[in-house]
Amino acid sequence: QVQLVESGGGLVQAGGSLRLSCSASGSIGAITAMGWFRQAPGKERELVASMTRDGNTHYGVSLKDRVTLSRDNAANTITVYLQMNNLKLEDTAVYYCNAASAIFASWGQGTQVTVSS
């Protein structure tokens, strides 16, 4: 298993930007993909962006042209950064970090992103 620590959520005006970060520790060598999902009230959790171990990145439809996912590998941690630009009211949601492997899927506690008009 891995432990995930998220940061960077908050309140932002429409059109603004936010950067979320998520650091994984523990069994990071087993991680095959790491990224972000989000869940808005009354809606299902959806993919925002995910990066595989070899660097292939997949973006969800909703934010595809407005986000960039990047990664920083250190000796004992992996950190992924989600840069979100031109945020819209409908981007308001709880954003969850995810780390997946062949034998586990770990989730962060979630960080609230609220976009105001």
Tertiary shape: globular
Low-confidence parts: none
Largest sheet: 7 strands, mixed
Q: What is the string of helix and strand elements?
A: EEEEEEEEEEE
What are the salient characteristics of this protein?
seven-stranded mixed sheet; 11 strands; four-stranded antiparallel sheet; mainly beta; 117 residues
Describe what you observe in this structure.
The protein is mostly beta strands. It contains no helices and eleven strands. The chain has strands at 2-7, 10-13, 18-26, 33-39, 46-52, 57-59, 67-73, 78-84, 93-100, 105-107, 111-116. Strands 2, 4, 5, 6, 9, 10 and 11 form a seven-stranded mixed β-sheet that branches. The mean pLDDT is 96.
Q: Which helices and strands, and how do they pair?
A:
Elements: E1 2-7, E2 10-13, E3 18-26, E4 33-39, E5 46-52, E6 57-59, E7 67-73, E8 78-84, E9 93-100, E10 105-107, E11 111-116
Parallel strand pairs: 2-11
Antiparallel strand pairs: 1-3, 3-8, 4-5, 4-9, 5-6, 7-8, 9-10, 9-11
